Amino acid sequence: MKFILFLSEAIVPLLLFYIVGTALVQKKNVYEDFLVGAKKGVKTVVEIMPTLIGLLVAVGVLRASGFLDLVGNLLKEALSGTNFPGELIPLSLVKMFSSSAATGLLLDIYKQHGTDSFLGFASSLLLSSTETIFYTMSIYFMSVKVKKTGYTFAGALFASLAGLFASVWIAGKI
Question: What is the pLDDT of residues 68-79, one digit of tens each?
């Protein structure tokens, strides 16, 4: 166990030393390569910034307007036969757009129901077993200019739905 703890603390510095050492052995200019990569990174951030701001504003508006609660109540009735808790529906929807906004909803669930409750545990599992589909697709596909995203979206939605129901099932079984 001590070795795993040591490795978890040392892996990043060891990886950095390995990368720099390999570059020096190959007689590459490490600093110049770093600057080129940093410039490309800043360019990518500038390109995706409007998408990020748009997603965050949209999630904030949906949450503040009460639209998420409305959709949650409608879906709660539709899912009544599945034993899926209605309190998790807004969290599930927001998670597809923004992980930070979903974390805010998670904290609300913790305050209302407690961290050790079924809903607290299921919410924690839900956040760790689902993906921010729209955020990820918009950022990554925009940066590499992918236009056809239909299969990716279907696969990501299926995987997130599987994660949703698995998290509720696991939380109920443990």
Answer: 778 878 888 787
